[in-house]
Design goal:
Elements (H helix, E strand, L loop, with lengths): L1 E3 L3 E7 L8 E10 L2 E11 L6 H4 L3 E8 L2 E18 L4 E8 L9 E6 L2 E2 H11 L5 E4 L3 H4 L1 E2 L2 E7 H11 L3 E6 L4 E6 L12 E2 L7 E2 L4 E8 L5 E4 L13 E4 L10 E4 L7 H15 L4 E7 L9 E5 L9 E13 L12 E11 L18 E6 L15 E3 L17 E2 L19 E6 L7 E7 L16 E5 L10 E5 L6 E5 L92 E5 L2 E6 L2 E5 L43 H9 L29
Parallel strand pairs: 1-16, 10-14, 15-22, 18-20, 27-29
Antiparallel strand pairs: 1-24, 2-5, 3-4, 3-23, 4-7, 5-6, 6-7, 8-12, 9-11, 13-14, 17-21, 18-19, 21-24, 22-23, 23-24, 25-26, 25-28, 28-29, 30-31, 31-32, 33-34, 34-35
Length: 693
Amino acid sequence: MSHQGSGMRFGFKAGSLAEDSLSVLSFKLKESLSSPYVVELELLSRRDDIKASDLVDQSGVLSWWQDGECQRELHGIVSRFGRGDSGHRQTRYRLRLEPALSRLQLRRNSRIFQEKSLTDIIAVLFGEMGITDYAFRCDPRHESRKREYCVQYGESDFDFFERLTREAGLFYYFEHSSDKHTLVLCDALDKLSLSPHSYPYNALAGGLAEQASVRSAEYRHRRAESGATLKDYSFRKPAYSFLQPSTEDADWQQSGYEHFDYPGRYKDDADGKLFSKVRLAGLRRESEQLLLKSDQLQALSGQKFALSEHPDASLNREWVIVGVSHTGEQGNAAEEDNSSRSTTYSNEIVAVPSSMQWQAEPKAKPQMAGPQIATVVGPKDEEIFCDEYGRVKVQFPWDRYAKGDEHGSCWIRVSQGWAGGQYGFMALPRIGHEVIVSFLDGDPDQPIITGRAYHAVNQVPYALPAHKTRTVLKTQSHKGEGSNELRFEDEAGEEEIYLHAQRDLNLLTENDRHEHIKHDNHLDVDNERRSRIGGNDHLTVLGESRQQVTGDKSLIVDGSLHLKAGSVWVNETGDEIHIKAGQKVVLESSSEITVKAGGSFVKVDPAGVHLSGPGINLNAGGGAASGSGYGGKAPELPGEVAAAELPNPLPLQLAPASMEMLSYNNVAVARLCQKQTDGSCPLEDCPCLKHKG
């Protein structure tokens, strides 16, 4: 079945060639929603000198004519050229015509888009290829919703464009005017306008017909998924399920045909609902179709039309063309054959109900083959750059557009050796450090730092392999010189634990502390040492004890002072010894007490009291001398070690969305006790009343 008319012809013009340079012998055109159309043309020309440079990558237009009037034009870019045999009069050429969008297939790139909407990203892709003729007929959310982080990695610009649009629930088609073609992006079939061209059904018309009609119609159903459920995870809401189901009823299939996928590639409910709806629509895109054969010249992908005059009245309704294949032949273009064959045209259409939620097949996102190396970046005058979650930003070696600043990537989480509820390990990679970046589920949009590595510039703390037995934790002072260090030496016979504090070292033991040093203990304090013992102080020295004080020494004992020497007690001062008692002074010896000054002395022994001196005065002459008096100073107390910081009270409460999801899954919920580590309760309405004064 084909359309024939004495006044029908096809025309083609491309590049700077004259309009009559090429005659259409035949063409095949395939077009469908969310796919670039392709026209394969077989042409004849009296010129045998047409070269590829005359046509390739040049604009071209295929036109349908009827009785001298142009009925339709299809514009595009010549993407392929072939020159065949030459006869006595004409040379055969083959060309392929595609839309300007196909140019994006020739560009492959890796780059990062940050805080850009889908429309922003499309504008960049199209702008780089000089594509200006495009339009949006969709929800404005696609313009307003900014994507925090969107990566094109190892994809052609075309694949990237198709992946993003399909993910967001957009499809595209082309509109052709007298001088150009326009790409139109849309998000629902019901937003398409109804074609004014008629599609009457006429299965009885045979042979060549003068009036365009539908000659064959096959109404087709396919068993398909009845529901799509997506799930994802966000570290900001780790307890939230992010489960998003989407279902569609169908009388002729089971409701249990569920499509489940994780991760769903979304981080909030709004995107999750959209993505699950789009996924289901894409899975069911072929569940109900109408296959037509017609000769309607105006049939094109993305067109809404009304079928009429079909004996099954239920089919006489509005449909949308999602795919159409055109075939045209113009036998009289071959001058050498003296052919009288007429010009014919036919097409095969795939349509879906206009009320259908149709989406193109989802396009797989590229998977990262493995971890990658990156460099931590940040502001120019900063050394450490992070957010409240300890995330940092990096620049990948493949990112040609990054400038090595705080805009190099999104905030990226950093794996730590231990991560609990306000406890664990924390070591932030600093600007300039090389890190190893992995990707959750291979998703380039979900990087996570899982390791760090030295390189030729950032080298190890101690030369290797000379110090291969050392295990080192060494930091660097922020915006200063120096470092803190904890080092372990495991060389046999030289084992050592070394601790260095660039400034202060604070140790806090909440209970007992025990030290056992099996050899020597050396302490060297360059300035002051202060100690305070809240209870008793016991010191046992099994050998010799020595002290030297180059200045004054004060000893204050609020109780009794007991000194005992097993053999000899010798006390020598350079000037004076002053002993003063409030009540009495008793000197006792079992054999002898001697008081000596110059050549005089008093000796007391078991034999008696002996006085010797140049003169001995009793109650006459002389006078008692006075001592210097007590001048000791109380010790200064040591500075306090800061108490361990208690975690901030974190009320353990579920978000409303979490409660809704638990209810959806029929999960019983009981309120947990909110007691914190310090015994307090952060709730104003503590249900158990156990931790209120």
